[in-house]
Amino acid sequence: MSDGWGIAPPAVACVGLSCRDHVWRVERFPPAVSRTHADGYRAEGGGPAATAAVAAARLGARARLWAIHGDDDDGRANAAELRASGVDLDGCHVPPGARSFVSAVLVAPDGERYIFPYRGRGLADEPAAHDWSGLEGVGAVLVDGRHPRLAAHAVAWAAAHGVPSVGDWGDLRHPELRARIDHLVASEEAGREAVGAHAPGGPGGTADDHVADDTVALAVRAIGALRDRPEQLVAVTLGPLGCVWDDRRDVWWQAAPSVDVVESNGAGDAFHGAYAAAVAGGLAVADAVRLATAVGALRCAGEGRAALPDLRTARELADRLPPPTHLGRSRAHPGGPA
User: Fold this and answer.
1) Exposed/middle/buried for residue 78 (C-beta within 10 Å: 0-12, 13-18, 19+)
2) What pTM was estimated for this model as a whole?
């Protein structure tokens, strides 16, 4: 990888949720008594699309966000933080009187997060209320499906203009929209749901070699269950175990680096933002996954969006990652196994 993006930085459209996270670091989880003390608290912007946009902007991409903000203090705080991070908000909309989408996020001592969302009020999912002119010139469109009508509008535009779409899918909702995505990047939880499997020991598995092997094998199975058309690229992110993807010719696994985890909240969102920026920048899929894996890991090593790395830092870590492991021929390819 080179040190920069080339002649001009890539432009990325991120379409979906922007919310307010109220984050408590608790001394134990689950609680043993009626009151569990917190040793840290902060309020900050969250949401998959918004955090992805910040991650892309931190990497030097031109990030543009289409989201719905509340007409309240939380919505105004989110917008101010995003602008300060260099995200273009011309595509965002504030319905009069709307209440923001907010989440309580409990961060356990091991860094795992537990999210309790309140979905707000009056956040109408109406494409006609937004200015879509900023889609012109983007190199990738990322959608998270939280506002499905906005996502459908953006994906249709991308298909009509030959721009790759990237989907951040955490569950199996909106299958008709998921089928239209070019690069479907699903969570381990979505993969397990697709094949009817339960998580061993919690999200992301454990460091045990046997569990890791089983989780990677499950991700390979999940790719086949998640794919809706042969030409669709499908990936499954596995937290500390990295990412498995099928590039329509072969199946690969990129291991993640070992980091001292402070918290995992937003790590997947950061992965998606970095991946979309890399796709917009013309990187090969393997290089996009390596960069995104490094960004997701670095997000876990600090608190909040402040932990998101710049391009140089992310690439330094990406270049130290082991090469991806070839897991076999793609079942989507005509020459692959039946």
Assistant:
1) buried
2) 0.91
